[in-house]
Request: fold
Amino acid sequence: MADVSAFVGRALDELVPPRPGPDRWPEIERSAAHRLRRRAAVVLAAVPVAAALAILVLAWPFSSGPGGALLERAAAAIGDGPVVHAVVQSGFAGTEIDLASGARVSIHEENELWYDPTRGVHDITRFAGVVQGDSLYAPRRVSYVDRTLAFLATDYRRALTNGTARLLGDGTVDGTPVYWIRVDTQMLPDVADGKLHEWAHDVAVAQDSLKPVATRETRDGNVSPDGISRVLSVESLGSGAGDFTADPAVDPTGIEMRFRLTGSLTRDQADQALGVGMLWAGASVDGLPLARIAGETRQEGLDRTTGHWQTTHTGITLFYGPTIGGGIGVPDPTGAHLRISETRTLDDQFQRGVRNYSPPEGKVLVFGTGGFGVMQSHGIHVFLEASSADLLLAAAKALAPRQ
Reply:
């Protein structure tokens, strides 16, 4: 019997390759059906009919479609409550660098989502625990939510139960054995090249529990630059449960804003504009000379009746680098350049990458390939933008109160 079991196992491995490509299911099913008919007589001749059928049925991974039985179990692993609640660690992250030791730590954005087919989606975004966004989307507007996250709440369970989900194969995520499941595929145009591309969303479920542990978005088979998002938790809740009240103070949508850089200030004038002694990185950084210090004004909440702005923030910006082609006292952005902006108050217009957050003093938080970052020193919040990661890090280390 052991030899027969091994034979059946080898036959099943041949009939159903363990890691099929995502677009080969029709081919695999046709091939498997043909070979199953061809080998059935051999298998059934070696073992009793009932035993052979039991072995094949139990091992066969398809139910009503590719991976059907597994997909049904994955749907059950979430639960059947009408409200879905998920916390996802986004692939988007910044790297926090200790300026003294050089130690680096990744900090990821997190999204908390509630989905209810009658109430829509409530999406809260946090970075290092600081709320970045808090939005409500009505059911008819769910498609506008970031698809790399919203599909986990809106499309995943539906695709598992209606048969449109596909089992891609196995893999690992952070050392956890997983099955990758394709939730949807769309052919969409890209304005950059005017061509159609295949956009798809996948979910990885743990092989032991079948609960989601990660998501990813792909274009033409390539994973999004933001990488894989980790699912920290997902659950279904009863009718009427969940948080569907957003904080309107967090979302700046609809608030008029204005940003201006003006003048060419001396260092003393920069101190006055900032309201405290400025930070600077010296007369030059890595050979780039200080070209200009500009005053910075950021305003929000225009009262059109009076013409007054509700809030005004001030700061300064230091420009380093040759100024040919970059405007009056502004370096050419196509060459080596460095920009250091300073403010005593954080606001939505001050920095990119993250809102209302600066890392602890002595550290700089950089984004992307290191072209821009944020930090704080001596009670001043700093935003840096540079033509290279090395230049940005050199400036961050050199920043100090002007003597």
Remarks:
- The chain has a mean pLDDT of 81.
- DSSP finds eight helices and 20 strands in the chain.
- Residues 330 and 374 are 20 Å apart (CA to CA).
- The longest helix spans residues 25-46.
